Amino acid sequence: MQAAATERLIQPARNVQGSLRLPGDKSISHRYALLGGLAEGTTRLSNFSTGADCASSLACVEALGAQVRRDGTSVDITGVTGHFRPSASPLDCGNSGSTMRMISGLLAAQSGTFTLIGDPSLSRRPMERIRKPLAAMGAHLDLTDGHAPIAIHGAPLTAIDYTTPIPSAQVKTSLLFAGLQADGTTTVREAVRTRDHGELALRAFGAHVDRTKDSVSIAGGQQLRAIEAAVPGDLSSAAFFLCAAALFPGSNLIFDELGLNPTRATLLDVLTALGAHIGVLNLETKNDELIGTVQVNAPPAGLIGTAISGALSAQLIDELPVLAAIGPYTQNGIRIRDAQELRVKESDRIALVAANLRAMGAEVEEFEDGLDVPGGQMLHGATIDAGGDHRIAMAFSIAALRAEGDTLIRGAESAAISFPEFFDLLDRVAER
Ligand code: S3P
Q: Going by DSSP bridges, is the β-strand pair 252-259/15-21 parallel, antiparallel, or unpaired?
């Protein structure tokens, strides 16, 4: 269901302070929901993501025969012990590329035909990247001009050895999920190590997964067992507040029980390179996922500026919009390259970041694979078009905190795709 369009007025802030415990990580919640749906037994999850995207994953496994009971952020999933039931109606993945791509890997090996649909944004996103390797394993996927709707004709699968042409954790995970049910050992190789929550989740559910520096392998025919898990706080949601705090000398923001998986935590290195002070304490590991407390303080003399390219761009892909949005407030600007994937996310994030920065009075240069955002600029409040994209709505709410005058975010409801609490928490930590 499409949320009603809403607008949010963001007033400039004087400082950012407080302590936050964030809802569960979106990437981990998706994987636990999908694997819990397939496993034997009842998976009990706490601090499950509150975003609409992960609700789409839960709804899909429920439509496929799993039993789902949800009470706020506590979710119990009784799985189908390896055999999904074909659903009479299409499986609606909503806005969620993760749901669509990863569930395709699970369904490719199941008997029956499954139809996947999504909202207009998801229906524009490229799906050939999963069709090709899943077809090489023996499944048959009918795309609609390279996109959803997708009809998956499941079949017995044969393992493959596949190198992903574009670094993508969604594609890697989809293939590992298919490989779990294939004949033989499936290997996925990647030039850049993308987030490894798929590998860690498979292990948590009892599967054996082998890793080398640049490959992951899984033998087919393994059965999954239900787990009990608390989902770590979402670092990509924290990113907006980390960047906000980095903008205000005198700021102090603390996050408890935040997911700190090293394949996700590159933002902390970038903020350190920008001059922010980042403290990490209380580290522990749960279901192989690193969790800890993070404290951020802004540098008294302001942020320096940095260039992001190559592997860093792939590892920071979800954090690039907010980094670009605070670029004008740095001394030397933010330069981003090798990030062409931003153009095929929930929106064309390069074009929307450039357009919205210009609306706030910034000078910015757009490239096919990135942006140059010069530093030392003062922005003014403006009307922002979030383009239905949660990360654009939130990134420009952060840019608005240091602007002169108020900023109106159009399409603010899209924040609920990953982070429904965003605006309330922003009001809590932003001092006006
Ligand atoms: C995700 C992987 C990334 C990311 C997305 C979530 C995941 O996409 O942008 O928000 O959970 O695996 P790609 O794998 O397509 O780069």
A: parallel
318 is catalytic: yes
Ligand 1 pocket, mutate which of 121, 168, 261, 394 (most atoms under 8 A from CB): 168
How many angstroms separate the alpha carbon of residue 258 from the centre of ligand 1? 18
168 lines ligand 1 (CB under 6 A): yes
Nearest-atom number in ligand 1 for the CA of 194 is 14
Series of mean pLDDT values for 10-residue runs along the chain (432 residues): 84 98 98 98 98 98 98 98 95 98 98 97 98 98 98 98 98 98 98 97 98 97 98 98 98 98 98 98 96 98 97 97 98 98 98 98 98 98 98 98 98 98 98 97
Query: Is there an atom of ligand 1 within 6 Å of 121 CB?
Result: no
What's the Cα-to-Cα distance from 143 to each of 100, 124, 179, rounded to whole Å?
12, 11, 21
- Does the CB atom of residue 417 touch ligand 1 within 6 A? no
Q: What angle do CA 431, 248, 323 make, to 5 degrees?
A: 110
What's residue 88's pLDDT?
A: 87
Q: Which domains, ranges and CATH numbers included, belong to the chain? A: 7-24+233-431 (3.65.10.10), 26-230 (3.65.10.10)
Q: What is the pTM of this model?
A: 0.98
Pseudo-torsion of CA 239, 341, 192, 58, nearest 10°? Answer: 60
- The pLDDT of residue 2 is 59
pLDDT in tens, 390-429: 999 999 999 999 999 999 999 999 999 999 999 999 999 9
Q: Which helix (H) or strand (E) holds 189?
A: strand 185-189
How far is ligand 1, taken at its centre, from the CA of residue 27, in Å? 7
Percent of residues in the chain assigned helix, strand, coil, to nearest 5: 35, 30, 40
* Angle, vertex CA 270, rays to CA 268 and CA 276, nearest 5: 75
Task: Specify the 3-state DSSP secondary structure of 242.
Answer: helix
d(CA 49, CA 35) in angstroms, rounded, equals 15
**CA dist 104 to 10, 69, 175, 285, 287, Å?**
39, 23, 9, 29, 24
31 lines ligand 1 (CB under 6 A): no
| 317 Cβ inside 6 Å of ligand 1 | yes
Q: Give the E-state strand segments of 27-73 in sequence order.
A: 42-46, 67-71
The one catalytic residue in 119, 234, 318, 389 is 318
Angle at 281 between CA 277 and CA 286, to 5 degrees: 130
